Amino acid sequence: MSSTLQPDGLETYGDDAQERVGFFTDTSVCIGCKACEVACKEWNLIPQDGQVWTGESYDNTSTLGANSWRHVAFVEQEKPLHANGDGGTGLRWLMESDVCKHCTHAACLDVCPTGSLFRTEFGTVVVQQDICNGCGYCVPACPFGVLDKRHIASDSNVGHKPDLPAALGTKEDGRVWKCTLCYDRLKGGHEPACAKACPTQSIQFGPLEELRERADARLANLDGEGWNGAQLYGRDPGDGVGGFGAFFLLLDDPEVYGLPPDPVVTTKFLGAMWQNMATAAAVMAVGIVGAFLGGTR
Amino acid sequence: MGSNMAENHPVGFQWVMEARERGAKVIHIDPRFTRTSAMATKWIGVRAGADIAFLGGIVNYILQNDLYFEEYVKHYTNAPVIIEEAFADTEDLDGLFSGWDDEKKKYDTSSWGYEGMTTHGAAGNREQGFVTKGHQSGHGGAGGGLSHGEPPSEDPELTHPRCVFQLLKKHYQRYTPEFVAEACGCSVEDFVYVCEALAENSGRERTGAFVYSVGWTQHTVGVQYIRAAAIIQQLLGNMGRPGGGIVALRGHASIQGSTDIPTLYDILPGYLPMPHAEYYGGFDNFVQANTSPSGWWGHFAAYWVSLMKAYFGEHATKDNEWLFRQLPRVDDDNSVYWTLQQMLEGKVKGYVVAGENPAVGNSNGRANRLALAKLDWLVVRDLVEIESASFWYDSPEIETGELKTDEIATEVFFLPAAAHTEKDGSFTNTQRLLQWHRQAVEPKEDCRSDLWFYFHLGRRIKQKLEDSKEPRDELVRALRWDYPTHGQLQEPSAESVLAEISGSELETGAFLDAYPKLKDDGSTSCGCWIYCGAYKDGVNQPARKKPHWEQDSYVAPEWAWAWPANRRMIYNRASADPEGNPWSERKRYVWWNGEKWTGLDVPDFEETKAPDYVPPENAKAEQAIAGDHPFIMQADGRSWLFVPQGLEDGPFPAHYEPHESPFRNPLYAQRANPGRQQSENDDLDPHNPSNGEPGAEAYPYVLTTYRLTEHHTAGGMSRTVPYLAELQPQMFCEVSPELAAEAQLEHGGWATIYTARSAIEARVLVTRRMRPLTIEGRTTHQVGLPYHWGKRGLTTGDSANDLFHLALDPNVHIQEVKAATCGIRPGRRPRGGALRKLVEEIRGQAGAA
C-alpha cells in the first residue's frame, strides 16, 4: 500500500470527493473536562448510558460504545511528566479523548452486508441507522472495539433517547451506532461538536494532511522539551489500517490507554483467504475432472 | 494556589495552557494532585489550611534575599510609611496584634494607624464605632489625617524600625523555608523552587501572577490568605502590570457582577455603604463621614446622588436630601450565617432563596435544613426543585425523624426560573469584563427570568401601595419603575436596565461615558458609578464582539466592556516607572509621552497629570494624589503592604491554624484566628476538639472539600442533567493508599466520614494523587470530598457540607469548608435515627463537649 491519504471508497465520489478531514487529538493538552463527551451527546442526541460509578480514576464512561462516541480515558501513573524527572512529583495523570478512528482501510465497511456503513465524501465512515439491520458483523470487525449495538429499549428510563422509534416498545434498539465525525455538521460547513467544545484544542479538526504536519511539529516540540513517552498513534499511513482519519498524540504506549498497539484491518487477509479457497477449489475441480477423465480410459 | 482551575474553570484554563506552551512555568500548590496539577510544570502537595505559612515564607524569602523590586516598593507601596508607636506585632504578643479585646473578642484597631494621623476605613469612616459582627469591611481607601494625600511620616530609605518595610521583615522573620516545610508538609527544595521561580519572573522584564479560588477564601482567615499574596505581588512589583496580578476565579458566573451590583446586605451598587440605623444624622453627615479627602473616593457624593437619581428620578431632590432619611438602614448583621442563627431561634418569618441551595451548599447542612423548617414561608426560585425546596418531605432529617412533614409549618413556594439561554443579560467576569448574552429560546411554562420576577413583583407592590399615606411606603412610591417590556410574557428590556446603570445627563438625556462626569447636584443619573459608560453613545458596549485579531493590540478594547471606563487593567500607571517610562520594552503598557498618559489600555490616571506632579496643600480627591502614586483609590495613592484600617483580624496576615486542626500553631500561642466568628449553638454546631484538647484523636484527619468539572456547586444544575450526572454518578471520597490501609478502606467500597456535626457515606477512591504528609514530624492524612451531592436529581448522595461547622472569617463571614478535621471508617453509615446515635456516640467517646 502506498502512503496515499486516499481512504478506500472515496474514489467512487469522483469530482464530488472532498478533501479528507479528521481529528488530531493531542493528549498533552487534554485537561479531562469531558466537554467532548457532553457536546457529542448533545449534538447527536445520544441517550444517557446509566449511572455507574466505576472507581477507575475519574472515568465513569469506561469505553467507546453505541452511547458514548467520545470517551476520555484517565490513567494515573507513577512516572515523571518529563523524561529528566522534571515536574518533581513523579506522578502524572494522563487523559485521552478516544473516538472512532475513521480508518483508511475500514473493516467495518468491508463486512457490512446492507451498505448501511459507508465512506462519506469527506473520507469518514458513517453508519446509516435507517438501513442498519443490526446484524452486528461490523462489531467484531473493528480492531478497536468502536462499533457497538445499542441495547436500550425505547421505553427504558435511561436518559433521553429521541431517536428511538416508539414502535420498538420494550425491544432493544439493536442497531449499530458510532461517531459520524458529525457528518451533518460537516455538510453544513461546521467542525464536529467535540472539537468545537474542546477548550484547550486537544481535539483539533481539519484536513488530515494538515493535521499530520501539525502533529509532527508538535511531537518535535515535546521531544525537544523532554516529555516522557510522547508518540503519535495512527498517524502512519503505512500501519495496519492505512493510518487513522482520527489519530492521536499519546504520552505513553497505546496499550496504557487501552488501545491496540498494532491494529490491523481485520479484513486484510480476506482477499488471500478467497484466493486460497479459489485455488483449493480449482485443484479439487481439476482432480474431479481428472478422475472422470481417468474413468473413461 | 487555592484553585483547581483546570477542573473548575476549564474554559479560562485554555489561556494557562497556551502560556505553558509558550514557556511559562505553571506551578500548582494544592493538597491534592488534581487535573490542574496534571497540566502544571510542577505540583507541590501541601496541607489544607496552612497557606499563609507558605505565602509568609515567600515574603520572608524575598526580603531575606533582597529579591524585591526596590524602586517599585519604595515608590508605589506604603513600605516607607512609619506606623504608630503603640502598634505591636504578633511577634511581640505571641500571635496577637495590639488592640485585642478578649471580652468583645475583637480588635480595637486604633494602634494600627499611620503615625501622626487618624486613618479611616474604606471610603472614609463608614465602619467606625459599630458592632462589626455584621459588616463587610469596606472597599477602597483610607482618608482623614492625610495632608494632601501624603502620610505624615515616612522613611524613604526603609530603615526606620517602625516603617512598614521593617515591620514586615520582623513579622515574617520566623517564616523560614524549614518552618514552611514543617507546617505545610512540603520539602524545603520545593518551597525554594517556588520562591526562585517567582523572583525570576518578576522585575522590569517579567511579571508573574497568582491564581486563586475558593480554596483560599473559604477559611476562617480567608481574607488574609489573599492579603498574603497581595504582599508578595507588591514586593515583586506585579500589580498594575501586564501578566501580573492576583487572579480571583469565582465560583459561579457573574459573581463579580453580584458584588458590583450587590446582592450583599450592607452595600449598594458600586461598593457604596448601606447607611447604619443609629449613626448618621442627615445626608450631609453621611457624605462627610464617607468622603475620603484624597483619592477617587473623594467624589462620594457624586456617586451617591447619581444613584439616588437612578432609583427615584424627580422624587429625589436636594431639598429632601435625595430621600436619604427614608432609605432603609442596616441595624444588625444580616449575612447568611447570622440570619441562619436567627432562623433557628424563630426570629425570621420569611426567606427568599434565589440561585442558592443552602440545604446542600451551606456549611452545616443539618442546621440549615432545621432552620428552614422554622420559617413561616419560604420562596425558592430555581431551575429545578432543589433540596432547599424539598427539605420538608425529603431530607436527611426526615430520615432521622428529627423533622416530620406534618409538623413543619413552613409554607414553601417553588417558582421555576429561566436559564441563561432563555433571557438577555450580562455576565461580569473576574477581569471586570461585562459580556452580553442574548436570549436563544423562550422560557418554558411558568419559568421566568429573574428580571421578569423582580420587575413584576415591584410593579405589583407599587400598585398595591399607590394610595398609601404611610411614611414607610414613601420610598416604594417614589421608585422609578418604568422599564419597557416586550413579548407575550412582558419581559422587561434588560438593555434598558443596562442603560440606567450606565447613566445619563438628565437635562439632555445624553449618555455618560465615564464616572468623572457624575455630579453631586442631581443633574446626572447613574445606577452604579463604576459601570458608568457601559451604555456610552447609546451603544450596548458589553455586546461588542470584535475579535482581538481584528484589533490593534492584544488588549482588545473593542471586545465587550470592562469597568471602570473600559479599562482592562486597573492601577495601570504602575506599569510605568516613577518618571512615567515603561519599566521595560517587553512590559510596556501605559506610559507618559511628555504631555499625557497613553498606551495600550485606557490609562488609570488623569490624562494630563505629570509624573512629577506634587499635590498643593489644599488639594482634594484625585488631585491630592501625587504623579508617581498609581493606586488612586487609596487615600495615599499607594498599595498597602500594611493595612491600617478595614480589616478585622490584623494589618499583616499571620499563620493561624484552621478552627479545627490536628496541629498546634507552630509559631504562636494563639492557635487559630482570634477574630473568627464562632457560633454559640453547641447543640447544632459543636466543634471537633483540636490538637491538645481532649478527644482530638477521634477526628485525626484533615478534611477538605472541592468541586469536579462534571458538576456545578450544590448540584442543582448538574445532578439533574443526564449527560453530566452519568459522568460522575456517585458521591465519593479520595484517600491515599496509606490512609486506606490505616483505616481499612477498600477501593470501590464504602466509607463513613464523620465530624461532631454529622456522618456521611461515600464510595472510596483510593489514589496516589492523595499523599500523606509529614507535619511536625507526624504522618498526616487528608480526606478529600466533592460537595455536589444531595437528595434530589438523577444522582443522589450525602452532602459533604453536612460535616462542617459554622466558624467564619471575621471580615466577610465565609465558612471554613476547605480545612477541618474528621474521622473515617469503612462501611456505610447507619440509616434512620441510628445516624444521630453514631455521631453522638463518637462525640461521647471522644469526650468532646
Please characterize this protein's 3D structure.
- The complex is a heterodimer of chains A (297) and B (849).
- In chain A, strand 4 and strand 5 form a beta hairpin.
- Chain A starts with 20 loop residues before the first strand and ends with a helix.
- Chain A has helices at 35-44, 107-111, 138-141, 183-187, 193-197, 208-224, 270-296, and strands at 21-26, 70-77, 92-99, 117-119, 125-127, 148-149, 176-177, 203-207, 231-233, 246-250.
- Helices cover 25% and strands 15% of the residues of chain A.
- A 4-stranded mixed β-sheet of chain A has the order 8-1-10-9.
- With 297 residues, chain A is α+β, with helices and mostly antiparallel strands.
- Chain B has 849 residues and is of the alpha/beta class.
- In chain B, 23% of the residues lie in helices and 12% in strands.
- In chain B, the strands form 11 sheets. Chain B has a 6-stranded mixed β-sheet with strand order 22-24-23-28-21-27. A 3-stranded parallel β-sheet of chain B has the order 9-10-11, with no helix packed on it.
- In chain B, a hairpin with a 2-residue loop joins strand 25 (773-775) and strand 26 (778-780).
- Classes of the chains: A alpha+beta (297), B alpha/beta (849).
- At the A-B interface, helix 1 and strand 3 of A face helix 2, helix 3, strand 2, helix 23 and strand 24 of B.
Provide a compact summary of the structure.
The complex is a heterodimer of chains A (297) and B (849). Chain A is α+β, with helices and mostly antiparallel strands and 297 residues long.
